[in-house]
Amino acid sequence: MKLTKSLLVGAGLTALxxxxxAQDAAPGFDxxxxxxxxxxLFCMAGFLVFFMAAGFAMLEGGLVRSKNVTMQMTxxxxxxSIAAIMYWLVGFNTxxxxxxxxxxxxxxxxxxxxxxxxxxxxxxxxASVGSDFFFQLVFVAATASIVxxxxxxxxKLWPFLIFVIVLTGFMYPxxxxxxxxxxxxxxxxxxxFAGSTVVHSxxxxxxxxxVIVLGPRLGKYKDGKVNPMPGSNLALxxxxxxxxxxxxxxxxxxxxxxxxxxxxxxxxxxIFANTNMAAAAGAVTALILTQVLYKKPDLTxxxxxxxxxxxxxxxxxxxxxxFGSLWIGAVGGIIVVLSIPMLDKFKLDDVVGAIxxxxxAGIWGTIAVIFYNSDxxxxxxxxGIIAYGVFTFVASLIVWFIxxxxxxxxxxxxxxxxxxDMAELGMEAYPEFSKG
Length: 436
Fold this sequence. Notes:
The protein is mostly helical. 66% of the residues lie in helices and 1% in strands.
């Protein structure tokens, strides 16, 4: 059986409680019930996390200028599709290689259970291979989506997609195996329930490297001033945020990795409630803080505040109380409001705020684990944060620099001014508007 996150977070897979309905069930129901229910959890949670791909696309489409919207849509559907293929080809079995001691083992192709697999041949102590593979796959696609928004409006399509191949097929699975695949960080006691570091910080580090190598958009920083470049559609960005919020219930709830007992199902519902509370607190905190700092609320900050709250609670969405989730998410909202202007001071042009949301709030969420998980220590959490940061940032820098040297990663000044939709794709998202 593949070593999976359930063994690392302590999720039990005991038999279902005896119910009146179970008396009429076929023999062996107590044994196959947990397998069926956990497989169902993975499928349902996977559907929700898959829908986050639409959330990222809508958020990015709303926060970029109209001349670059088609490019963002193309990048998002392409990156998910590439992630699906690469995770099948090498990623899944690299991330979950079975019992091993070390840093990584490059795996082979994923093989599903046989058609109509019998109970005797199924992994009754866990779930179907197909459901496990699909649930893990949608996580890696989310990591690539984080990079897409940060490097928007000036990157070429094909170099970006080549980076996605490396990120989803190798970088993310290798580092993911350290924690969720039973690797050295898991053995050391590092704790990351649903991926504040394993998923979100990894995407944030990769995005930061890309932003540094690319440089800022033309005209963003001029004469010592930061020139705002408003997005094309804040309604679309808001829709994307709500879709991401919805998908996060699958992201965190599915990471319980078991639904075969009363305790498991109750824990999933607890995770839902805590996840929602953290998002709400992040949004409200950003709303109030922007009113105080800028005399008017800033919608884009509120949207990112909600997302930062979600990222913050992702490392430990089960153990905290509702109040605990509230203050953890609220700190995430503060981080976003304060760190987005800080990036501008360093002339790091992150178009959608992906680095503050996913990297900075991801680091915070990973540290916050120690307040509610007695098995976690600050030293071990910091060790994990540093390990993921060094590996992902350095590896990403290397890949970005190679792509820059070999084929170039940034469009010409003329193409950037005219917009990537026409320069890279030859089609516009809003052709009637541009000709209006």
